[in-house]
């Protein structure tokens, strides 16, 4: 690789003229008959020749004679016809198109016969730097060599059949992601700094040498175009400032930090900058297309998309650090690969479009993506004076275009139906709000409870009647009949009393601040919520499947988190548990796969319910409170990886032995060892 930079900086004119470098001092020989090279060049002259061009015919005997040319640096036999005729040995030429190279230690530049279809023992030319061959030539895949330059010339038998395995100047790359979402790149043993092709068509037809070569730079002679096939961190950015195209995954895994794309480049292909963890800045100039996972795993936080862009993959920025994208065109590009599982980064980015282009962007998949016009207001503040009236404050346009809400005042649970209409909201501030159940909800609950009591009373009466019928028919004994009748009558009495009491009582509306059942469920773009300062309860499923929720601070007065509250909040990576917290319901944090630390040490929780933290696969620390008495299921489902910290002198009821590290109070070994039968415990 030490000469890569030098080779890449060589001008196009110099490369094109390289074939003529030795023309004035080259010894030219016509070998009219195979096997007669030793007659055409006397043995006394072989050590004098450094540059040699041969025409005519050659067989194995002629190639054996070439090994006598100890000072030969340049060898051109591209116009030679290979033959096995008149041979005394069959060591090198095995057919009219197959050649095994002899040992030519000093040869630096070699022109192979245009008719040659198979070449092997390339390693025998140990000092080789430049190679010329035809587009029909195959290599022995056992050869491993790095060259500065390869020139592929046009033969007379080029096939025009399209090779679907080649994707333009990216013939080495398989662009199908594997299970780890990474490109599979095939690197051949034969590598070259610069690959020069006679015509661009070689990249699209069956050009056999391309199956065996991994080039860094590709230059096309017929149109003077230059393509980057693979970047090396040894390169100078100036060497590719005028390139015409980039291959798929060309920069993948490199240490490049900043780059300006040549205005001639129209495509950023699949995986182009994949896993460039240091890439922070890029200028796309005149790009028209951005491919799959082109910027995955990069450090770029902001990007300006030129007006020239016509198409792009929905997965272009997946798993990247991208925070802001500004489009310069008033018309959106066509989105491809929109069903990609990995294309989740759009919800977390600020998408800025030109002024007065909102209506043109509201088409197709873009209807589901949150964006705003440059300079427009997207944060709205509402001071609600009468609970249940939030809908009258928020206009349809604000519902469609707003990305953050601050709500002050008294809200009912019914107001959240309005909030959920704001589909693209990312931030909600309820810190200065007080939320209660509405009289309407309380009335509906009362009616539902009364209907249930009526049903219970009716069922108990039917059970008593059925039991009496069976007793008369002799299908049950007296004892069983009496037991059923007594139980059914007791249930009926209780249900009737409760029903009568409910009818006589007035509607009970709670005044304490709560977050209602399923209040923010499935708000996909929601990233941060500030809860009411005086919140005491979060009801069932309040944040279920808010997949992009990352930040939430639980207020100090919070006492109850009901079941399924944060279930499937896969982006929630940190959460505080306040000291007044007494209850966490079952599956409350199920599938919070980004949650790393569960610290309940300062809470008042006595029971860990079933599945409370199940499938929290990233959790590495669980800290239990001193009040913990019962475990209805294992705290963290990923045993062995998570460390557990307990404050009690004995294990809680339901605790099971595990291969995880267990940290217990000093002096509590005896209590824990007896109850849990653990072999290893760590005293703090």
Structure characterization notes:
With 684 residues, the chain is an alpha/beta fold. The chain folds into four domains: 241 residues, no CATH class; 125 residues, Leucine-rich repeat, LRR (right-handed beta-alpha superhelix) (Alpha-Beta Horseshoe), CATH 3.80.10.10; 66 residues; 173 residues, Ribonuclease Inhibitor (Leucine-rich repeat, LRR (right-handed beta-alpha superhelix), Alpha-Beta Horseshoe), CATH 3.80.10. The protein is built from ten helices and 44 strands. Strands 1, 2, 3, 4, 7, 9, 11, 14, 15, 16 and 17 form an eleven-stranded mixed beta sheet that branches. Strands 28, 29, 30, 31, 33 and 35 form a six-stranded parallel beta sheet that branches. Strand 28, helix 6 and strand 29 form a beta-alpha-beta unit. Helix 8 runs antiparallel to helix 9. The chain is elongated and about 125 Å long. The two termini are 55 Å apart. The N terminus is likely disordered. This is Leucine-rich repeat domain-containing protein.
Question: Which SSEs are present, and which pair or pack?
Answer:
Elements: H1 4-8, H2 12-16, E1 27-31, H3 37-40, E2 51-58, H4 60-66, E3 74-76, E4 80-82, E5 93-95, E6 98-100, E7 109-111, E8 118-120, E9 130-134, E10 138-139, E11 145-153, E12 173-174, E13 184-185, E14 190-197, E15 213-220, E16 225-228, E17 245-246, E18 258-260, E19 267-268, E20 281-283, E21 289-290, E22 302-305, E23 311-313, E24 324-327, E25 334-336, E26 350-353, H5 358-361, E27 371-373, E28 379-384, H6 396-401, E29 404-412, H7 416-419, E30 427-429, E31 433-436, H8 439-472, H9 478-504, E32 513-515, E33 528-530, E34 535-538, E35 551-553, E36 560-561, E37 583-584, E38 597-599, E39 607-608, E40 621-623, E41 630-631, E42 643-645, E43 662-664, H10 669-676, E44 682-683
Parallel strand pairs: 1-2, 2-3, 2-4, 3-7, 6-8, 7-9, 8-10, 9-11, 11-14, 14-15, 16-17, 18-20, 19-21, 21-23, 22-24, 23-25, 24-26, 26-27, 28-29, 29-30, 29-31, 30-33, 32-34, 33-35, 34-36, 36-37, 38-40, 39-41, 40-42, 42-43, 43-44
Antiparallel strand pairs: 5-6, 12-13, 15-16
Helix pairs in contact: 8-9
């Amino acid at each position: 690789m030490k000469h890569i930079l030098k080779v890449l900086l060589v001008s196009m004119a110099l490369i094109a003229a390289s074939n003529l470098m030795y023309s004035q001092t080259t010894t030219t020989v016509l070998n009219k008959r195979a096997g007669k090279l030793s007659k055409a060049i006397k043995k006394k002259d072989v050590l004098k020749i450094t540059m040699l061009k041969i025409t005519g015919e050659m067989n194995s005997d002629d190639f054996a004679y070439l090994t006598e040319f100890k000072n030969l640096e340049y060898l051109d036999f591209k116009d030679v016809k290979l033959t096995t005729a008149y041979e005394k040995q069959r060591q090198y030429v095995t057919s009219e198109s197959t050649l095994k190279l002899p040992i030519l230690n000093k040869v630096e530049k070699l022109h192979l016969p245009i008719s040659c279809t198979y070449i092997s023992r390339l390693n025998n030319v140990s000092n080789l730097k430049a190679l010329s061959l035809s587009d029909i030539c195959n290599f022995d895949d056992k050869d491993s060599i790095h060259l500065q330059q390869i020139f592929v010339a046009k033969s007379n038998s080029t096939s025009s059949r399209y090779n679907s395995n080649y994707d333009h100047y990216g013939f080495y790359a398989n662009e199908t992601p594997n299970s780890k979402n990474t490109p599979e790149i095939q690197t051949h043993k034969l590598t070259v700094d610069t690959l020069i092709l006679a015509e661009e068509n070689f990249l699209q037809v069956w050009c056999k040498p391309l199956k065996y070569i991994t080039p860094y730079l590709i230059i096309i002679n017929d149109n003077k175009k230059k393509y980057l096939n693979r970047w090396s961190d040894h390169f100078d950015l100036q060497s590719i400032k005028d390139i015409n195209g980039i291959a798929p995954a060309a920069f993948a895994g490199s240490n490049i930090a900043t780059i300006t794309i040549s205005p001639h480049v129209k495509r950023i292909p699949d995986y182009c900058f994949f896993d460039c963890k240091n890439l922070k800045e890029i200028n796309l100039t005149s790009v028209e297309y951005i491919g799959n996972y082109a910027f995955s795993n990069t450090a770029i936080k902001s990007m300006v998309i030129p007006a020239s862009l016509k198409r792009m993959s929905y997965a272009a920025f997946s798993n990247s650090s991208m925070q802001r994208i500004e489009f310069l065109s008033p018309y959106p590009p066509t989105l491809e690969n929109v069903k990609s599982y990995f294309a989740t980064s759009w919800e977390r980015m600020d998408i800025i479009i030109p002024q007065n282009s909102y209506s043109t962007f509201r088409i197709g998949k873009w209807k589901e993506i949150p964006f705003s016009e440059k300079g427009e207001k997207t944060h709205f503040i509402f001071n609600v004076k009468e609970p249940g009236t939030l809908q009258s404050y928020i206009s349809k346009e604000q519902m469609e275009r707003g990305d953050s809400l601050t709500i002050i005042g008294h809200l009912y649970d019914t107001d959240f139906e309005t909030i959920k209409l704001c589909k693209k909201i990312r931030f909600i501030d309820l810190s200065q709000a007080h939320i209660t159940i509405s009289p309407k909800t309380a009335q509906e609950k009362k009616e539902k409870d009364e209907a249930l009591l009526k049903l219970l009373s009716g069922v108990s009466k039917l059970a008593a009647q059925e039991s009496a019928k069976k007793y008369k028919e002799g299908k049950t004994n007296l004892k069983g009949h009496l037991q059923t009748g007594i139980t059914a009558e007791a249930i009926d009495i209780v249900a009737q009393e409760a029903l009568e009491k409910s009818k006589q009582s007035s509607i009970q509306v709670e005044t304490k601040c709560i977050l209602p059942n399923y209040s923010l469920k499935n708000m996909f773009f929601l990233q941060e919520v500030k809860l009411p300062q005086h919140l005491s309860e979060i009801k069932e499923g309040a944040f279920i499947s808010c997949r992009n929720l990352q930040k939430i601070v639980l207020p100090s007065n919070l006492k109850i988190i009901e079941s399924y509250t944060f279930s499937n909040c896969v982006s929630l990576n940190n959460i505080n548990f306040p000291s007044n917290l007494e209850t966490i319901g079952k599956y409350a944090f199920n599938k919070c796969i980004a949650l790393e630390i569960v610290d309940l040490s300062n809470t008042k929780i006595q029971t860990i319910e079933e599945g409370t933290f199940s499938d929290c696969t990233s959790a590495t620390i669980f800290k239990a409170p001193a009040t913990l008495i019962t475990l209805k299921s294992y705290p963290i489902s990923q045993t062995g990886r998570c460390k557990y910290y307990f404050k009690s002198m004995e294990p809680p009821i339901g605790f099971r032995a595990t291969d995880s590290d267990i940290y217990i109070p000093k002096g509590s070994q005896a209590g824990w060892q007896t109850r849990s039968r653990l072999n290893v415990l760590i005293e703090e």
